[in-house]
Amino acid sequence: SQQGEEDPQALSIQEGENATMNCSYKTSINNLQWYRQNSGRGLVHLILIRSNEREKHSGRLRVTLDTSKKSSSLLITASRAADTASYFCATDASDMRFGAGTRLTVKP
Amino acid sequence: GAVVSQHPSWVICKSGTSVKIECRSLDFQATTMFWYRQFPKQSLMLMATSNEGSKATYEQGVEKDKFLINHASLTLSTLTVTSAHPEDSSFYICSARSGISDEQFFGPGTRLTVL
């Protein structure tokens, strides 16, 4: 079964704009990870945030985690057309379970 | 980082045949391996979890007699889709958890098409 929900399900923005995706989950976790997937391809690991962390940055990515609300957000700043993909959060307890995903389209 | 390979990367088969997919952890020992399935435009769904030398644990709704999992060693797990039907066509992704770092790494996936 899936761990939780992501919103929005789909997001379309112009190049240069920021994209924010949210993820909610249901159970206790050790960490939460964000992945990217281009159509028909494998997963690309983006960033991991541990349960005792609140915010993490990696390049143009910023991830927040609120364990009290069981939610996380992924912010992509200054988006590029190449950022077009599906983005998934995955919670890690003893196994990893994925959210429903957000399909991001960045228009040039 | 750690590498997980899958073979084959894609396979096309006739309805009623069985297909085996291999998953290997190339540079680490995996205490636990996982199999996921992803239908078009959907997320990854965990199918089963297997520990080396033990029977796999299947998620609710996944038929254990149809999806046979063998975790023969700390670096190899296989998924056999028995008597495949067109509705089994999907993207199958394996994952391996390192016994040392406890991190989980994903394979590149196998696309199965059943005609």
Shape of chain A: globular
Q: State the assembly state of the protein chains.
A: heterodimer
Low-confidence regions of chain B: none
Order of helices and strands of chain A: EEEEEEEEEEE
Most extensive chain-chain interface? A-B, 17 and 22 residues
The main β sheet of chain B shows up as: 7 strands, mixed
- Strand percentage of chain A lies at over 45%
* Share of helix of chain A, binned: under 10%
Please provide the ordered H/E string of secondary-structure elements of chain B.
EEEEEEEEEEE
End-to-end separation of chain A in angstroms reads 36 Å
Shape of chain B: globular
Broad structural category of chain A: mainly beta
Give me the count of strands of chain B. 11
The largest sheet of chain A, given as strand count, sense and whether it forms a barrel, is: 6 strands, mixed
What are the key terms here?
heterodimer; A: 108 residues; mainly beta; six-stranded mixed beta sheet; 0% helix; globular; B: 115 residues; seven-stranded mixed beta sheet; four-stranded antiparallel beta sheet
Helices and strands in order, then pairings?
The complex is a heterodimer of chains A (108) and B (115).
Chain A: E1 5-7, E2 10-14, E3 19-24, E4 31-37, E5 43-50, E6 55-58, E7 61-66, E8 71-76, E9 85-92, E10 96-98, E11 102-107
Parallel strand pairs in A: 2-11
Antiparallel strand pairs in A: 1-3, 3-8, 4-5, 4-9, 6-7, 7-8, 9-10, 9-11
Chain B: E1 4-7, E2 10-13, E3 19-25, E4 30-38, E5 44-51, E6 57-58, E7 67-73, E8 76-81, E9 90-98, E10 104-106, E11 110-114
Parallel strand pairs in B: 2-11
Antiparallel strand pairs in B: 1-3, 3-8, 4-5, 4-9, 5-6, 7-8, 9-10, 9-11
Structural summary, described in words:
- The complex is a heterodimer of chains A (108) and B (115).
- Chain A is mainly beta and 108 residues long.
- In chain A, a hairpin with a 4-residue loop joins strand 7 and strand 8.
- The termini of chain A are far apart.
- The mean pLDDT of chain A is 93.
- Chain B is 0% helix and 56% strand.
- In chain B, the strands form 2 sheets. In chain B, strands 2, 4, 5, 6, 9, 10 and 11 form a 7-stranded mixed sheet that branches. Chain B has a 4-stranded antiparallel sheet with strand order 1-3-8-7, with no helix packed on it.
- In chain B, a hairpin with a 5-residue loop joins strand 9 and strand 10.
- Chain B is globular, with a radius of gyration of 13 Å.
- At the A-B interface, strand 10 of A face strand 4, strand 5 and strand 9 of B.
